[in-house]
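User: Can you help me understand a structure? I only have the sequence.
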Amino acid sequence: MENGVVNLTDKFSRINEHWSPRIVAAVNNFHIKLVKLQGEFVWHKHDETDEMFFVSKGQLTIRLRERDVVLGEGDLFVVPRGVEHCPVAEGECEVLLIEPAGTVNTGDAGGDRTVADPSWI
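Assistant: Let's start by predicting it. Here is the structure, written out as tokens:
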């Protein structure tokens, strides 16, 4: 981060794995994370926090138990705390997340896709 500027295009180009969020900035007790998504994630929820998804590139569907929310480039959606959801990206999708520091990507589900301590990029 030169002079406090984060270039998202550059940072996304350095991410080679799907479903592995990376931290690019911190604001108070919140982390700004970038993640590349492809395929279906796990159903999960975050009891203590909302989760914000901003689609930078591609298309993302957030499955909720009662409906699907389809996000295109430039769209933002907040999953309220305690709401079970499952992100799905048919093609590769680049997403910016804002969430409290320490938020685990798989929430209450755990499993092999859990990134409990994401690295900075």
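Now, to help you interpret it: The longest helix spans residues 8-13. The beta strands are 22-27, 30-40, 51-57, 60-64, 68-71, 76-79, 85-100. Let me know which part you'd like to focus on.
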